[in-house]
Design goal:
This protein has six helices and no strands. With about 160 residues, the protein is mainly α.
Amino acid sequence: MTPTHDVVELILQDHRTMEDLFRDMRSVEADRAAALSEFADLLIAHALAEEAEVYPALRRFKNIDDEEVEHGEEEHEEGNKALLELLEVEDVGSDEWDEKLENLVEAVNHHTDEEERTILNGARENVAMERREELGVAFLKERDKQLSAHCGSVDNIRRILKD
């Protein structure tokens, strides 16, 4: 697969990676705790990069609905809360863990579905490829910075939710 800097494609790639990690977290044959740790870092880094670099830029385009962008930010918070609840369960694979996992899956899948249909399709239709590639570079830089800081820690998620 050819590397891309198109922010739309980069966001979609992260969404597909999250789906793969959900499958691992559901599988008794996988290292569920490791999958959750990787997922936590990716979800938080992805959301912070979108909010820092992508959403503000997309608000400037008249054919991209500002309310959808705001709604996307609200859904990030819902996903963060569901993630924190799962991370706080001590017994991986317990009934409580499975229940919290499904809450997380539901929150994130709801958000990614809406984002793909509204914000990302709006970006495809209204934002020139050159600008999408510029946004992609900025998105990757911020996401990678967050990933290297292991941003999916319980303490960091608590801090984000308080802000």
